[in-house]
């Protein structure tokens, strides 16, 4: 992830902090300093740091639950708005997805309970009520009160049944126990979008931040549904059913200027770089081309600015496996090769999406060719 700093590792999982989070801490310090001086500023920073430690533990709950089912997590990134565990995939088994989704909120439940026990001991057995907690004047105890409340809020907020919150995945897992994964996703996404619209309308009359959250939830729910629909539609199809067979190629000696000419005379956004034997050396994207044109000049060799290590598959490979490869390898395209390793086709998310749209327009999903 750009602009993120790796601060540690837990097994195969890198723990990262985005630069904006550090800027957020600076902003918190300044805001508290203006209202209460240096001691208030450091107390505010301490509270936020402890809160995000709880967020990190929440994400680790997802990570360890996912590991139980063989799902890897390359990294966790902390942002000002929370944490994101980059799971390699979401288990399709409903029971497994339920465990992975609920693991994070359960961590916050445990943290809140531990903090409430500590506070109960601090109050000498007094009942934990809002009034009794409000009378606590010790700054250290005050932080524990706010931290317990924050963890309770995290549980409630994350269990809202809308993607990308954990509650949306819990809902899908429960629905998938009675219906197919794709239908459960569509239903959960629709519920999430309805809640997002409700948040947006409520935000108009109360807090504008709810409008921002509503838009984020609506788009995330739409994206989740689209990904699952694409995955389901690609089942049973072969790479040869979706690959591009007519495309412009570049040679290792081609320049960025040559690539610009190819961009003008074609509709491609990704240009494979192929050597004399027909083997794929890499892919030059339109964005990388324009960036190189500005920074290094039009005579720069494409081999210097292309994305190398592009995975290749055979034409009779399963389409859904190839799509998973694009996602896991984070590449703009996958090369399709023949038995001799020569490039014969190109597979991109865009042309796969076009294939799926045609299938939907036809009202049926044809069987894979040659299957």
How would you explain this protein's 3D organization?
- The chain is an alpha/beta fold and 371 residues long.
- The chain has three domains: 1-159, no CATH class; 165-235, no CATH class; 239-360, CBS-domain.
- It is 59% helix and 12% strand.
- The strands form three sheets. It has a four-stranded mixed beta sheet with strand order 1-2-3-4. Strands 7-8-9 form a three-stranded mixed beta sheet. Strands 5-6 form a two-stranded antiparallel sheet.
- α1 links the parallel β2 and β3.
- α6 packs antiparallel against α7 (208-234).
- The radius of gyration is 25 Å and the shape is globular.
- 30% of the residues are buried.
- The active site is at residue 59.
- Keywords: CBS domain, Cell membrane, Hydrolase, Membrane, Metal-binding, Metalloprotease, Protease, Repeat, Transmembrane, Transmembrane helix, Zinc.
- This is Zinc metalloprotease.
- It comes from Xanthobacter autotrophicus.
- Its cofactor is Zn(2+).
SSE-based structural type: alpha/beta
Low-confidence stretches: 134-138, 365-371
Radius of gyration: 25 Å
What spatial form do the alpha-carbon principal axes imply? globular
Q: What is the string of helix and strand elements?
A: EEHEEHHHHHHHHEEHHEHEEH
| SS summary, helix count | 13
Roughly what percent helix?
55-70%
Distance between the termini: 39 Å
Q: Please state roughly what percent of the residues sit in beta strands, choosing from under 5%, 5-15%, 15-25%, 25-35%, 35-45% or over 45%.
A: 5-15%
Number of strands: 9
**Sheet with the most strands, sense and barrel status:** 4 strands, mixed
Q: What number of structural domains do the residues give?
A: 3
Kindly report the spatial arrangement of strands forming the biggest sheet.
1-2-3-4
């Amino acid at each position: 992830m750009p602009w993120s700093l790796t601060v540690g590792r837990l097994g195969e999982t890198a723990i990262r902090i985005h630069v904006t989070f550090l800027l957020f801490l600076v902003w918190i310090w300044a805001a508290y300093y203006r209202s209460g001086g240096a001691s208030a500023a450091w107390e505010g920073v301490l509270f936020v740091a402890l809160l995000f430690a709880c967020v990190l533990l929440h994400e680790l709950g997802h990570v360890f639950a996912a590991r139980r089912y063989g799902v890897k997590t390359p990294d966790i990134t902390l942002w000002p708005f929370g944490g994101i565990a980059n799971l390699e995939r979401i288990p399709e088994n409903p029971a497994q997805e339920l465990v992975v989704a609920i693991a994070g909120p359960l961590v916050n439940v445990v943290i809140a309970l531990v903090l409430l026990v500590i506070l109960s001991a601090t109050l000498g057995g007094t009942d934990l009520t809002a009034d009794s907690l409000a009378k606590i004047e010790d700054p250290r105890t005050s932080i524990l009160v706010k931290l317990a409340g924050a963890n309770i809020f995290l549980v409630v907020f994350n269990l809202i049944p809308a993607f990308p919150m954990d509650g949306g995945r819990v809902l899908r897992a429960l629905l998938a126990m009675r219906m197919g994964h794709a239908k459960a996703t569509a239903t959960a996404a629709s519920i999430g979008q309805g809640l997002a619209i409700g948040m947006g309308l409520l935000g108009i009359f109360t807090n504008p931040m709810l409008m921002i959250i509503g838009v984020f939830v609506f788009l995330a729910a739409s994206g989740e549904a689209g990904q699952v629909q694409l995955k389901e539609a690609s089942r049973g199809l072969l790479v040869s059913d979706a690959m591009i067979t007519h495309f412009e190629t570049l040679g290792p000696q081609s320049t960025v200027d040559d690539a610009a000419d190819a961009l003008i005379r074609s509709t491609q956004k990704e240009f494979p770089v192929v050597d004399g034997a027909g083997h794929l050396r890499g892919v030059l994207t339109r964005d990388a081309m324009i960036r190189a044109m500005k920074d290094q000049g039009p005579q720069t060799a494409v081999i210097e600015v292309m994305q190398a290590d592009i995975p290749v598959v055979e034409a009779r490979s399963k389409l859904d496996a190839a799509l998973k490869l694009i996602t896991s390898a984070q590449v703009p395209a996958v090369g399709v090769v023949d038995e001799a390793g020569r490039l014969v086709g190109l597979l991109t998310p865009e042309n796969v999406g076009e294939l799926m749209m045609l299938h939907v327009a036809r009202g049926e999903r044809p069987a894979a060719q040659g299957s």
